[in-house]
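Quick entry between incubations.
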Amino acid sequence: MASERRDRIERLIERGLQACAGLSVLVTAGILVVLLVETLQFFREVSPFEFLFGTVWTPLFLQKSFGVLPLVGGTLLVSFIAMSVAGPAGLLTAIYLSEYAPSRVRRVVKPVLEVLAGVPTVVYGYFALLFVTPLLQQLIPGLSGFNALSPGLVMGIMILPMVSSLSEDALHGVPRGLREAAYALGATKMQTTVRVVLPAALSGISAAGILAVSRAIGETMIVTIAAGQQPRLTANPLVPIETMTAYIVQVSLGDTPTGTLAYRTIFAVGMLLFVSTFLLNLVSNWLRERFREEYA
Amino acid sequence: MTRRLRNQLLDHLLHGAGMAATLLGLVVLGALLFDIFSDGLGRISWDFLTSFPSRRAENAGIYAALAGTVWVISFTALLAVPLGIGAAIFLEEYAARGGWSRVIEINIANLAGVPSVIYGLLGLGLLVRTLALGRSVIAGAATLALLVLPVVILSSREALRAVSPSLREASYALGATKWQTIWHQVLPVALPGMLTGMILALSRAIGETAPLITIGALTYVPFAPAGIWSPFTVLPIQVFNWVSRPQEAFLENAAAGIIVLLALLLAMNGAAAWLRDRFQQ
Amino acid sequence: MSSSTTAIPSLADVAQQSAESGAADTPTKVDVDALSFFYGEKQALEGVSLSIPANQVTAFIGPSGCGKSTFLRTLNRMNDIIPRTRVVGKVAIDGDDIYAPGTDVVELRRRVGMVFQKSNPFPKSIYENIAYGLRINGMAGARSELDDRVESSLQAAALWDEVSDRLRESALALSGGQQQRLCIARALAVQPEVLLMDEPASALDPIATQRIEELVYQLKSKYTIVIVTHNMQQAARVSDRTAVFWLGKLVEYDKTSQIFTAPSEKLTEDYVTGRFG
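Done. Structure below.
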């Protein structure tokens, strides 16, 4: 019967589309399996304790040592610098655009900020290494050619649009009635914003901030180019350091033979990176859901 | 100082700080563009676009990287677009709410937040080694396709959601099957929106460096890809390679390479904006 | 303007006109037995039973949210596309239960056409709007056959004279009333037996409304027509039988003249005299 043939085709198409959607789950599974297999192999030879708490990272040297803390420290240092730019500047930009700026200004500024978010990271790396670092060296005499400060600042500019646009969404989500109530009591814009709107949008803004941290931790090219490749456990932003992501690139660029212990380190580091960004994203999502529920 | 005066002052202060913060982003963007164009514009020439890389900076060109980018991005699109649209159609038109489709949705949202270098490790472990695709154009394209898939799915779903349900009802009421309805009525209306999303996703892929370095794309490639099994390099990797050299002349090449990359991105974003305006109703 | 030659009966004529068609009672086309309908947990229809005669116009009236549109959409299983809905009871067309397992829903919807409250032409040419249903149902072979069917459908919907010279233009360029007649033409093209109309004139001005009503009046000789309306004058003008719904239940179902002149239920009387709704 014609309708049977037609129904069969319909079902076949549905199955095909379902497979496309299911593929995304396979991607996640693939990431997990690839990272797990290599990481477990790695832990056969290096104890997880040494990996997580060791303070010396020299897997590519003759005298091998597998303490990941210098890479974690480098990552956190750069991310901290980035967030101290992107956090305040992003939030102030969001406040300005959502509460103060005339709509004409908003229409011009928002697309330009989007451009900032769309610039490839390798371009930011170039900018950090060859523009920002020399500029900073004139202000800070002891600044090394590779350092955490310059890529941190540039990374902050890179994630600023993300912080500002997500925070702006959160500010917009605050019901108009709350603002009007404050204005009716004679509050200024600043009082309304700081005492009423910001607290109401707090969970949404925190979600934006945490997502930005996750982005900073995972960012690769800026730090690979401008932060140096010297794993070093330090809080000094003026000397070369290495981040987790930059280490993965460093090994990928070199001629480390596949299957060796040194080679497996990039998967172990990748696993750490994956787990930390995944947890941050989860928290961010949870906060955003909570914000949405509050004002749904 | 009276209380009222103080409040007004603080109000102006917040206004001013907001403006300054907003300007910060814009000023940096301006400085970045100025720096790159002043460094690299002098190197842009027909020879630069059509020459292979060289150990001598003044002879080096961008041709192999440009060709590599075109190859890789074309195959990225070929893989990611049908898969992403298919997944979006399933989630938007077929899947019941809750259960399995909720799992897929959360999963896609999470994938969108995975650092790109992790996709590189996936490509390396799964595509380059387990599937033995080698360090080829197809391995690079597949890696980038997986990377942009969440973005493609999310933007396609948005485009599908924008199609009025009344069109679907009209089609069903005429005795159309689900797929006939989607194919003949829903997709044509959603297409411009989808295309815009695709172009933006692909323009993100064009700038990606880390995942391709991780799967082992070469940094020195004196030839254009000859096919999907060919080794390759891409624009951002070539730029990275030049940035890593100490000689001033190579840094100029890097800036020139960035100008080419930015021009490509500008063209794609322009196309997306044009599409959006052209078909907006 | 090619105005219809058929006069629409005034409210005063209704009794007589209905009496005439009532005299020649036609066989039952759609038979509904104890139909209930649920959106998730919420029950929207409760035990509705009625028989719709062939080649007559049956109107469903009642206040907003009374379930009349939901009921209409159970007749071509249009509610199937809304997730988490459930049907209990029986709807038979020509004696066959359309909710029986193995029913070809796609073929059912071809046989039971539908026109919606808000005109919804496809964003394509006028010609393609009509041709779509013919193509997907494999009802047009040669090009000339397709052309003929498009023309006859547009003629049946009294739209041909207005659009014959611009078939290739976008349907979205038509006026609201024309768009709705295009939707009727589109539904007629696939040769349905029953035509369901869900408040087809609610978004139209009085003149466009009148043209739709004239059209309904003409079409009933060939089709069984079910029309949902919240305009009681319209129900009185165009329908042979009227069903009154209230809170998901069928309150009363009778000849239109009876409903409007001597309803047996108090609720019906209150509604048709405008005391609520």
